[in-house]
Amino acid sequence: MPTSLKDTTTLHNGVKMPWVGLGVFKVTDGDEVIQSVKAAIKNGYTSIDTAAIYKNEEGVGQAIKESGVPREELFITSKLWNSEQGYESTLKAFETSMEKLGLDYLDLYLIHWPGKDKYKETWKAFEKLYKEGRIRAIGVSNFQIHHLEDLIASAEIKPMVNQVEFHPHLTQKELKAYCEKEGIQLEAWSPLKQGQLLNEPVLQEIAEKYNKSVAQVILRWDIQQGVVTIPKSVKEHRIIENADIFDFELTAEEMDRIDGLNQDSRAGSHPDTMSVGF
């Protein structure tokens, strides 16, 4: 069980990935994202998760430079946007991301959404970049079991990570079991369902017992079941609070109660229909 923000899970290729990171979805480029990332790094975070479509890779890169923390101590993730899927376009999009971030290599690069029929050629480009040492780990985001089965059937290298919408209203039990069986690390985006879970009575009751916030209870629930989590905040006190989840442990009964809140409901798009235009 992780005991601090520095603790990591080991991906199937031996790369160590922090259990908790900072997500920067919907964080504006420029000062807002720079301050957010610098606050996280200053308070012990080493993992930062961005994406081409967030349009804030420059700010993330700037914050990394200004943080004064050596590059090799950080774990930086970005994602390839849907319109860039395909072999050549992926290679090009990767270079653009690297230029914006001002980095020589990425720790993790993800296919942002499966789409319909291009993710296999996209993956070939990922494998090439991985073999060249430009990316330490490669993975996917928002892939359902059928996408993963299809990809793995023709892949040389199995994805190391699958980052999906995951929270107490969307517990993704089958997908989680499948990823565990295949040695693919599951990672939660929108772990707090964009704030929609904060008034959930069961979570409030558990939070009160431990003198923690509902957000802290949810993030603890993530890591206790072996799911990497990347809560987003632009407020330093929240960034600190989101990481303060290592001094309590939920009981098996509490974990079950939280699982029981599942409604299979999403804050974001469904991966099978999020394929328009690519």
TrEMBL record:
The record marks 79 as: Lowers pKa of active site Tyr. The active site is at residue 54. Residues 28-262 form the NADP-dependent oxidoreductase domain. It comes from the Bacteria. Transmembrane segments: none annotated. It holds the Pfam family Aldo_ket_red. InterPro entries: AKR, AKR5G, Aldo/ket_reductase_CS, NAD(P)_OxRdtase_dom_sf, NADP_OxRdtase_dom. Substrate binds at residue 112. GO terms for molecular function: oxidoreductase activity, acting on the CH-OH group of donors, NAD or NADP as acceptor. PROSITE patterns: ALDOKETO_REDUCTASE_2, ALDOKETO_REDUCTASE_3. Keywords: NADP, Oxidoreductase. Belongs to the aldo/keto reductase family. This is Diketogulonate reductase-like aldo/keto reductase. It comes from Mesobacillus foraminis.
